[in-house]
């Protein structure tokens, strides 16, 4: 059932034909991953689904994964976190990548979508054309268009309904799915919270800064000696003395973004072990580069990041503008998923995107969510809402969950934002049972 097409470039591309229905399952299914049977779907789809007069297309890729005995099971489409990150590559031999897959395959065939602009889906790699043209192109990389890609893939597979699992930004995308096409969904599973609906990004970042202040102080209670190490490292960075292995200057704000690791299970330990190393050592430079958020592999993650919170708003570098006075006064308070425009000057992987990122920061983003549609969506849903989530605030997750009539939120302090993987499938198992009403809460 593999459908192939010529790969498309990063920028605007030529017109392509509409996707054809997939043939029945046959010997095209391949058994090259132990314990799994996989297949590929590659479709040429509109860049702008809402404008039939726009001839541009992109290629969208998805990998379908099943167990040998599960070829007739219903479909579950997985929506990856990010934004701008490709779907995980499946394996059952590494229980941590992805940790939830084995549990999902007990009930479903899983569709691992490389969201537009990522992985094998016409990846956004380097800017093409003028900054204005590239910025316009990237305005079509948000959740609204990703959902329409999902609908095209669903129709291509000849499936009337399927379930969806969204991790972090993938959950934001699932929320858009429930706003636009709830009739296509049999169930919705959210891991890592739900997006704020109708709130400006400034409000969201204000809450996440407060959360990172708590996480920073909690970290220093565990590792009190590290506070002086962080202070010294920030001072060294301010003097230009911290660099990556390839020579990029790591600014003081970039050093403080190491706090992003505190939002994942085991992240505090990783940061502590990094700070044991001498900043002048090769080991420190390489480990530092690996641990800094918003790296160069997936430039979309940085370039369109703030837009994922823009439910009808202009962000204007929201995180940088809303940094509270406590963070300005105390350089040992660590930031999380907060983006700063100066990084596009100092990070060689982000420098080509500086002008594009600035244009997108002042783009008036349209609404993503329809509150009336969400209130009317009769889709069984369950959400893992992590009490100490560093990235998706608890209060907004619960406010959004209350909009959905058949939502079953599960608030837990047992896991951090990566609980879906870290739990080895336990989080997804609970959500499936909640949505099926096998559990009350």
Proportion of strand residues: 5-15%
CATH second-level architecture of the largest domain: 3-Layer(aba) Sandwich
* DSSP summary: helix tally: 18
CATH topology of the largest domain: Rossmann fold
Give the spatial strand order of the biggest sheet. 1-2-3-5-4-6-7-8-9
End-to-end Cα distance: 40 Å
For the biggest sheet, the summary is:
9 strands, mixed
Q: What ranges have pLDDT less than 50 throughout 5 or more consecutive residues?
A: 1-18, 22-27
Can you give the helix content as a percent range?
25-40%
Radius of gyration from the alpha-carbon trace, in angstroms:
21 Å
Element-level helix/strand string: EEEEHEHHEHEHHHHHHHHHHHEHEHH
CATH class term of the largest domain: Alpha Beta
CATH H-level superfamily of the largest domain: Alpha/Beta hydrolase fold, catalytic domain
- Given helix and strand content, the structural type is alpha/beta
* Envelope shape: globular
Indicate how many domains the architecture comprises. Answer: 2
Compute the number of strand runs.
Answer: 9
Domain AB hydrolase-1: 75-229
Pfam family, one: Abhydrolase_1
Family: Belongs to the peptidase S33 family.
GO biological process, one term: proteolysis
Summary, kept brief:
The protein is 34% helix and 14% strand.
List keywords for this structure.
441 residues, alpha/beta, Rossmann fold, 2 domains, nine-stranded mixed sheet, 34% helix, globular, disordered N terminus, AB_hydrolase_fold, aminopeptidase activity
Structural overview:
α2 crosses α14 and α3 (143-156) packs across α4 (169-180). 34% of the residues lie in helices and 14% in strands. It has 18 helices and 9 strands. It has 2 domains: 28-198 and 369-436, Alpha/Beta hydrolase fold, catalytic domain (Rossmann fold), CATH 3.40.50.1820; 201-362, no CATH class. It has a 9-stranded mixed β-sheet, sandwiched between helices. The longest helix is centred in the middle third of the chain and has 22 residues, at 201-222. The chain has 441 residues and is of the alpha/beta class.
């Amino acid at each position: 059932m593999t459908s192939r097409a010529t790969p498309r470039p990063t920028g605007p591309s030529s017109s392509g034909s509409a996707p054809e229905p997939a043939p029945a399952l046959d010997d095209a299914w391949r058994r090259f991953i132990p314990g799994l049977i996989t297949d590929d779907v590659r479709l040429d789809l509109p860049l702008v689904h809402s404008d039939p007069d726009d001839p541009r297309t992109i290629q969208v890729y998805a990998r379908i994964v099943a167990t040998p005995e599960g070829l007739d099971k219903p479909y579950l489409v997985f929506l990856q976190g990010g934004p701008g990150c490709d779907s995980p590559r499946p394996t059952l031999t590494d229980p941590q990548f992805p940790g939830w897959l084995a549990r999902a395959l007990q009930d479903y065939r899983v569709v691992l979508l490389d969201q537009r602009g990522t992985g094998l889906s016409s990846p956004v790699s380097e800017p093409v054309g003028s900054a204005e043209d590239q910025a316009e192109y990237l305005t079509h990389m948000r959740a609204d268009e990703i959902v329409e890609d999902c609908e095209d893939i669903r129709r291509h597979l000849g499936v009337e309904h399927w379930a969806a699992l969204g991790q972090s930004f993938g959950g934001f995308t699932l929320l858009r799915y429930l706003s636009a096409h709830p009739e296509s969904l049999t169930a919705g599973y959210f891991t890592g919270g739900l997006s704020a609906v109708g709130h400006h990004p400034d409000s969201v970042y204000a809450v996440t800064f407060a959360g990172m202040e708590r996480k920073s102080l909690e970290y220093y209670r565990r590792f009190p000696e590290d506070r002086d190490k962080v202070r010294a490292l920030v001072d060294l960075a301010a003097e230009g003395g911290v660099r990556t292995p390839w020579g990029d200057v790591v600014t003081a704000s970039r050093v403080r973004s190491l706090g992003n690791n505190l939002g994942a299970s085991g992240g505090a330990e990783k940061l502590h072990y990094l700070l044991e190393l001498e900043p002048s050592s090769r080991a420190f430079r390489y480990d530092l580069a690996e641990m800094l958020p918003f790296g160069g592999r997936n430039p979309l993650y940085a370039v369109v990041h703030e837009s994922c919170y823009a439910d009808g708003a202009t962000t204007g570098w929201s995180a940088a503008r809303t940094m509270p006075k406590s963070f300005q006064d105390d350089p040992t308070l660590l930031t999380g998923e907060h983006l700063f425009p100066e990084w596009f000057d100092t990070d060689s992987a982000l420098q080509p995107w500086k002008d594009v990122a600035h244009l997108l920061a002042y783009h008036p983003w349209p609404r993503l969510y329809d509150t009336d549609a969400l209130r009317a969506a009769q889709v069984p849903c369950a959400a893992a809402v992590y009490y100490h989530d560093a990235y998706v605030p608890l209060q907004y997750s619960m406010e959004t969950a209350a909009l959905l009539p058949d939502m079953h939120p599960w608030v837990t302090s047992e896991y951090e934002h990566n609980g879906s993987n870290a739990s080895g499938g336990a989080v997804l198992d609970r959500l499936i049972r909640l949505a099926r009403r096998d559990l009350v809460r």
